[in-house]
Sequence to fold (214 residues):
Amino acid sequence: MAVTAAALPVVETFHSLQGEGVHSGRSAFFIRLAGCTVGCPWCDTKHSWPAAAHPRHSLEALAAKAHDAAAAGAGFVVITGGEPLHHDLDELTAALHQRTALPLHLETSGVDRLSGHFDWITLSPKRHRPPSDDLLRHCHELKVVVHETADLGFAEVMASAASRLRAGNGSDPPVLLLQPGWQSTDGQSLALGYVQSHPDWRLSLQLHKNLGVR
Fold:
C-alpha cells in the first residue's frame, strides 16, 4: 500500500531527452523512483526494483532540482521508476508545482491507484499484471511493449478498455503506441507490421538508447 512521506527512495535524477512515446525528443527532467514489484523479465532498470537499496531524497530537494532543470531548459518533469505509483505521489507533485511551472508527466504500469496531479500520463500495461481501470481511464498515452504475437492482442484489449473508460469521462481516446522490446527482432517485426496495417497505432522507439544517452 502506498504511503505518503516527506522523502522518497530515488534511483537517480537527470536532465536529458524523453526517449519514448509521444513526447520523444523533447528536453525533460527525470525523477526515477525506486521500488517495483511488477517484475518484467525484459526490464532495463532492474536495479531500481529494491526500494530499500536506494537513498531517500526529500521532496523539497527533488523540487529544487526540477526548478534548476527548468532554468537549464527542461520542458517538463517525468516521474518514472521502478513503479512510481507504489508510492503516494500527492505530496511530491504538490512540492513540484510549488517550485516550478513545468508540466508533470507520469510513466506507470498502472497496477496501483493513481495519486498525484499530472498533466500527462503514459500507461505501459503488462500482460502478466494488467492495469487498473482507474489508470486506463486517465491515461493520455497507451504504450505497449511488443515481444511476441500475444502482445498485439493484449494491446488491442487495452486500447478498447481505455477508449471506453475515457469516453465515460468525456475524454478523447489515448494515443496508441507499440514499442518493440529492446533488441527484440521478433518484437520489431511484429510492431512494424502491425502499425503499417493498423493506422490507429503509432510506432515508439527508444531514441535515447539509439543515441547512447540517459
